[in-house]
Amino acid sequence: xxxxxxxxxxxxxxxxxxxxxxxxxxxxxxxxxxxxxxxxxxxxxxxxxxxxxxxxxxxxxxxxxxxxxxxxxxxxxxxxxxxxxxxxxxxxxxxxxxxxxxxxxxxxxxxxxxxxxxxxxxxxxxxxxxxxxxxxxxxxxxxxxxxxxxxxxxxxxxxxxxxxxxxxxxxxxxxxxxxxxxxxxxxxxxxxxxxxxxxxxxxxxxxxxxxxxxxxxxxxxxxxxxxxxxxxxxxxxxxxxxxxxxxxxxxxxxxxxxxxxxxxxxxxxxxxxxxxxxxxxxxxxxxxxxxxxxxxxxxxxxxxxxxxxxxxxxxxxxxxxxxxxxxxxxxxxxxxxxxx
Length: 340
Ligand SMILES: Nc1ncnc2c1ncn2[C@@H]1O[C@H](COP(=O)(O)OP(=O)(O)OP(=O)(O)O)[C@@H](O)[C@H]1O
Ligand SMILES: [Mg+2]
Known about the structure:
This protein has helices spanning 11-20, 33-46, 50-53, 62-77, 126-130, 146-153, 157-180, 218-237, 274-291, 298-308, 327-338, and strands spanning 81-90, 94-101, 109-115, 188-192, 195-199, 250-253, 256-259. The protein is of the alpha+beta class. The strands form two sheets. Strands 1-2-3-5-4 form a five-stranded antiparallel sheet, sandwiched between helices. Strands 6-7 form a two-stranded antiparallel ribbon. The two termini are 42 Å apart. The site of adenosine-5'-triphosphate has 22 residues, from strand 1, strand 2, strand 3 and strand 5.
């Protein structure tokens, strides 16, 4: 079985890898990779090596296997998963795997979202989302430590690792509060390092498609559209805007929808781009449902929801919104669509 050879990693790589796994240098006396590497190597040697015992059904490529052993080892150790069955999808930011749940989890199947190493990450305009948003540590708590904040502000290697961790923590903690609020999101189970365990939508043979992958009957479309808007409303009621909502991040299974993919959530109270991002979410949803025969005025829906929750609508909207009732907008939308 292919595993990472820690002795071959240089000090920087070793520390970065262990940051991604949630092993933070504060447990050691310093944050400098040079000073941390030696005690970290000692620490690794004292750990039970799950990588020798964790064998899974999924036939991963060599690099992927080492990466999975490292990313999911802790879940296996705690009996949250017992096997990795297959890769559901490899996305831009992360890959999602179907796992057999372990004895500590009350489910049969479970999904593991494993984030790519941060070097491969390409989150466009991340500053628009991070605006006003504090950073979270690997336990989902706001980072208050001055040294850590400094490292993030200065974008040191250590700081970039912390920022990456913060995205993952936002995804997990948002899912926790939204699940508790009754929104249609997968049940979040655990977060460790660069991976999140959550409820799996689908069955053993096939995973739930995204709305973008299917067409709906018009009768069904109206009900689902209402359901999507109810969820957007629930999110807003809990001071949360998805930030990347579209038919690509909504799963459909047995007549129900599930919102997924939350790392870029923003707060309507804190982020100054909130209204624009909120409108864009709604516009994308309306675009999909327009194709399914549902006419809706995205701008009106956005403003109505926004003001219903007591927020002030921003009159300087700089995002071009498409109005499904406007023939010019429909023509523009067709043009944009064929341009893809
Ligand atoms: N809980 C789940 N149950 C079943 N399938 C899931 C689940 N979560 C995610 N998936 C599948 O994995 C894909 C990628 O997940 P997600 O959108 O969260 O990650 P991503 O890396 O941001 O992907 P992308 O960049 O393509 O949007 C989804 O499109 C969906 O097909
Ligand atoms: Mg996605």
